[in-house]
What does this fold into?
Amino acid sequence: MTAPSPFHAGEIAVQERVGVHERAERSATHSIRDHLIEQHRDFYPLLPMLFTGFLDVDGRPWASILTGPPGFSHALDERRLRINALPAPGDPLAAGLRDGLSVGCLGLQWETRRRNRVNGLVSGFDGDGFTLDVIHAFGNCPKYIQTREAVAALEPGAALQETRTALNADDRALIAQADTFFIATAVADGADVSHRGGKPGFLRLEEDGVLSWPDYAGNNFFNTLGNIETNSRAGFLIPDWEPGRILQMTGNAEIRWDIEARVGLPGAKRAMAFKPSEVRSLPNVIPDRWALLESSPFLNRLRD
It folds into this structure.
């Protein structure tokens, strides 16, 4: 009897379009699990932050960040990840966090470029945090991740949100110099969050307020693109590393398959676009100041 595919119809459609479905299925059989292997159980307690993806009460995806001293996220066992942290006031996750909520989590160790993903359902939500009951867990390759190190503690301050429908000058400046962002997507069976990295300028702001970026070769699972193929709604988070601010957006995304969309985007397999409908800026959320050590060496090869 053939085991069911770990991929939904949207992911399969994208994989088949680019000719990698059989390869992705083979890879998934030994990499996508329904539990945390020992390596992952040892990994999460090392981290000072987790990135998350979820749906708000209106069904809109958002990307968020949870922070704490190393150990704030740790495995209770192979099927439960305890997260002793709560979102900042004003973060959409703060209003929607509850038992049964589908949450995608991404752990990323900036110093080593290690990253692992775990998606599941919230349980045991209380005043200290929550437990994530694992549905899917798998590792990601280190491609396109910039190495960073924490160089100073951020002075504590109020996390007062600004909510608006359009990007302002500060947002545009952050987008222009960003080398990292996170995108949240979702389908009926769950939410997800994924990392994207590139050289400053890879995330472009078009005249009509649309953000666009190149889609580089990855693990061939096409979790994000498959979700967008099924549900165009998406969420964005861009870290502003020096002052500790995060820029959050929700809106709609699309895959630009045409060759013309890749002009001027070295290494791009496709182009992507996102139109924000709501924008939130939260200061003093990232607890440390982070300095760039080295851009990903994969980025230097894209011209070839």
Notes: DSSP finds seven helices and 17 strands in the chain. The first strand starts at residue 49 and ends at 55. The chain has one domain: 9-300. Residues 9-300 form a domain with the Pnp Oxidase; Chain A fold (CATH 2.30.110.10).
